[in-house]
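Researcher: Let's run the pair from yesterday's discussion. Sequence first, then tokens, for each.
Model: Starting with the first of the pair.
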Amino acid sequence: MNRIFLSLAVMVAVSFGQIFGQTITTSQSQNTGGKIETYTRTETVQPDGRSITTTTTTSTANVNASFGIKASANMSDFVIRNSDNYQINMKPGVSAGIFLKLENKNFAFHYELWLRYKTFEMKNTENQTNTDYQYWSLELPIYFMGQINTSVGKVFIGAGPYVSLGLDGKQDPGNIDIFYKNATTGKPVMQRWDVGLGATAGFEFNNGIIVFAGYQFGFINALHIENDDLTMKNRTINFGIGYKF
């Protein structure tokens, strides 16, 4: 009889130890303001019947990646300094590109790759002659953007650096390749490379359609000349549309 009672006592003690020694953990996550917040609640039942509860909160940024396409019309010219004999007039061109966007609710990094066709006219005010320039280039801008969300989409504005590589171009009259080294001087008419700053602003609708405007200004003197005082730096204004997939 004593042996049966002792066995029952051991079984009861083990059962109570399993119940009162256990730990229960629950967690819940929600998206708030572009961040994922996770709430974790842990409840531990002590052998004496007391319950100890702890709550922790962790927050991680909710970053979304997307890509899309863009097209724009541009007006471009060059800003000339230290010369009164030349005047440059903007002429129209076109651009097509793709983009990658990494964003949360209020901020984004925006990477673009453009194929641009640009034209401008240079007028010699001393002898009243005009020279036309047309060229193709690849351009890679990177923008840091701020965003404001609305019921129909988001307003964005951003700025950042760009690098550009001239692919092909000519100068008329003469049909001269502006990136090809001249046999006499050993230098081309213009530099292939350009580095500068750009800015962009626009609106992205909830259906993925984007309207935007942009401005770029180059830091590198585009001319290959001996007179370092004379500088000619790129300037471009563009207006376009795009679509984010």
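Model: Moving on to the second of the pair.
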Amino acid sequence: MVAIRATAACPSGFFTVADEFSLVPGFYPYKQYSPPHEGAVMAHAQDEQQIRDLIEQWARAVQQQDLDGVVAGHAEDIVMFDVAPPEQGVRGLEEYRGAWPAFFAWIARGARFELVDLDVTAGAEVAFAHALLRCGEPEELASAPGRRLRLSLGLVKNNGEWLIQHEHHSGTYLPDPHEGEQSVRDIHAQWFADTEAKNLEGIMSHIAEDVVSYEHEEPIEYLGIDAVRSMCEFGLNQTTGPVTWSVPGLRVLARDDVAVAWGLNRMTAQMTDGSVHEEWSRGTRVFRFRDGAWTMVHQHVSYPR
């Protein structure tokens, strides 16, 4: 601690306060800092434990399909933002009660709803908590063990009892695999059109900044979008005539945020003498769904030897 001598101002001038105060970091020197009373610390810890117990009991009630247990401990004006509609959320205890039977039917088919992480912060009258849960059918949880349902809660103390006044449930967005497959096919169709139009910027628009490409020519790998751009530009400029690219038997497999496409590339180019050169090669392309869009992160093309 550092002792200081405080000087204060008044409308008629300045005067010096001769009293010395203890300066505690983060506090004004005009008031001696007092640590929280032991009783206040214990009350705070008890509040956080009560909230933790309330949330853990709620999660168990969901898994047990106990509607009364799920509704218990919620305020009359509860507002829940759920993964499912409605967009404006579920409002009021009756709507909250009505939102659960359909979810219970899913639980009854073998789905799990389990708390794996819970953090609680409590004030005197208001508290919040956030949690992660394992939520899904056994097959889903086995194929994506790291997937979590996210939960945020706002609580108020009413007559000494903690009540949940707000719930927000969400999961990270994963594109539908059928939508992912179609998106990758659409990218290929756009590539084919942009190749024929020799639209380099259009071709590059679906390629990730950190792409890694294994091409026919050296170097052994092309790292980054600038390297791939240079290679594509060189290829398009090899002839002044039309250039076409297609993958007649294109196959696409999409799961979650990853997709793979493969097939035989058919390239044609009109030469200066008017003849058309045709070339076939093998191609595999990997896509990631990032920032709301599918982009190619890896390409491997080759000729059989």
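Researcher: Give me one sentence on the second I can quote.
Model: Confidence is low (pLDDT under 50) at residues 1-31.
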